[in-house]
């Protein structure tokens, strides 16, 4: 298979030429043979008619008839040969007697050998040399009859066919060349616009897109796919910029606090106070390190390599275990934790699922007042597990429903509480790594977070979305 | 204790060594696995502390080679990776414990103490006893001064960890890891709330607190409490 448009076009042109040539050859042979056959047929009919005349009326009558025929020959007589023009006679005759002497017939040629002859040279009535087909049959009672037909018609037909095919060949050659040039121009033109856009993007202009002509044909589809890819890359790049900006911003605050604490230590001379301030400084440093671990853990989860360790996890088991771990803390904080779960297995990583639940419960504890009820429930829904963590606390504003799952998202009223706004982002990352998703479900009171996860049998065949 | 430390970051290795020496331990440091291998096989150490990421021979391969040679010295792996991935292969390679960087120094000390003095046949022990508290692991029964105390399974595990490490500090992360199998630290004070329940049950009717809180590092049971 040729790899370039030029090669492909050349190949197609050569194939077309070859097909035309084969077609021409076949047509030529068929037509040529057919006309020769028709001429033979005509000669045979003529000869039979003349032999019958000789049988009934004798040699002299035959001589008379042939002379008459020669005299009255008109183009109409030879109408079986379409196109035989008036300058040529259709048929010619020679009648010889038993001694071999010519007695009638105006065919200007030597007597051909007995039987069929394909090429008999003769002189046409206007004097030019020509070729004829002829039969030489014996006459009963001595003498021979030669009936000949001009071959000019065969040659004329051959020439016409040759002319026809040559012009067809020339036409195809011209059209093919034009198509090759046109196709090449079209392809090169579209490719060069794509190249130009790609070069601009490589040079740093990430907002550039491949031009579309609205035809929705091949090149447009390619350009649309490329544009989709570029959109995704740009989103990721923006995300990356956003995250690096956020990290820089969010790190400055705790680093400043840490620095402040250390300065305080430096200023202090009382040992007990110094000790206290050092402990506080270490706590600030630990917070910072926690932040880094969370960022790393999230990128690790988003990196999808975690999927290689997935196996069947009994979700209800994990939930019960986590609930058991949290219940004393909930009770001590004046909140209650309830379960409404059904046995269900998912394909995933036990520790990530633990972490996901822990983050959600940490959140519920941190952002609700005492007296709040928190319920964890699961149910089967369209081959998926819907895992819901609902509370009847103050909830969040509708506009924040999307935002709380973003990295470093902290709602204004929660600025005073600890944390860096990574907990729910990790929940979203874990859900995505398991081929599921997380959302806030509108509820009359409180906050209801729903995680949809494929069940164990479903998730193996499904790629994460 | 004689501790061998393999760590390629000289600054952290120096401060860890200094801290351990201040506590009265003997510490020998190596910056890479190749150099450490021969010394470890020569024997004489109570605990090995191996960084997982090392130039040349990494900590995991070093540990595998050491174990393949039949050396059973307790070993702790230090890993800078997040906990998600390599807990299992570290333990499979023959590590007795692992610690995720960054760690608090007290955490390292507590874990090293637990490793260095681990009784050789701790798995076969069926009766644990310390500070007037006894635990029968077969009958899952706990008594304090002969009074039977009814514990929830998780409280039982908590107490078991403390009793197994009597006179040594057990840290929050050790408990999270061993009792709940959490490789991470929740924001919620799970350990504290469970510990406070355990305490209430243990101390009911007694004037002396059975469990001592060691500020800034963890919990411990004194074996010779009154």
Q: Which features characterize this protein?
A:
heterodimer, A: 465 residues, alpha+beta, Beta-Lactamase, Helix Hairpins, Heat Shock Protein 90, five-stranded mixed β-sheet, 9 helices, 54% helix, rod-shaped, disordered C terminus, B: alpha/beta, Rossmann fold, Arc Repressor Mutant, subunit A, five-stranded parallel β-sheet, 21% strand, elongated
Describe the model.
The complex is a heterodimer of chains A (465) and B (226). Chain A is an alpha+beta fold and 465 residues long. Chain A folds into 3 domains: 5-159, 2-Layer Sandwich (Beta-Lactamase), CATH 3.30.450; 218-300, Helix Hairpins (Orthogonal Bundle), CATH 1.10.287; 309-459, Heat Shock Protein 90 (2-Layer Sandwich), CATH 3.30.565.10. Chain A has 9 helices and 12 strands. Chain A has helices at 5-57, 59-72, 152-202, 218-267, 271-302, 315-332, 350-366, 423-433, 456-459, and strands at 91-96, 102-104, 115-123, 129-138, 144-150, 311-314, 336-340, 345-348, 373-381, 384-391, 437-441, 448-454. In chain A, helix 5 packs parallel to helix 8 (423-433). The two termini of chain A are 37 Å apart. The model of chain A is unreliable at 75-89 and 459-465 (pLDDT under 50). By secondary structure, chain B is of the alpha/beta class. Chain B folds into 2 domains: 2-116, Response regulator (Rossmann fold, 3-Layer(aba) Sandwich), CATH 3.40.50.2300; 122-220, Winged helix-like DNA-binding domain superfamily/Winged helix DNA-binding domain (Arc Repressor Mutant, subunit A, Orthogonal Bundle). Chain B has helices at residues 10-22, 33-42, 59-68, 83-92, 105-116, 153-164, 172-179, 190-203, and strands spanning 2-6, 26-30, 47-51, 75-79, 97-100, 127-130, 133-136, 141-144, 147-149, 170-171, 212-214, 218-220. In chain B, the strands form 3 sheets. Chain B has a 5-stranded parallel beta sheet, sandwiched between helices. In chain B, strand 3 (47-51), helix 3 (59-68) and strand 4 (75-79) form a beta-alpha-beta unit. The model of chain B has no long low-confidence stretch (mean pLDDT 87). Chains A and B meet through helix 5, helix 6 and helix 7 of A and helix 4 and helix 8 of B.
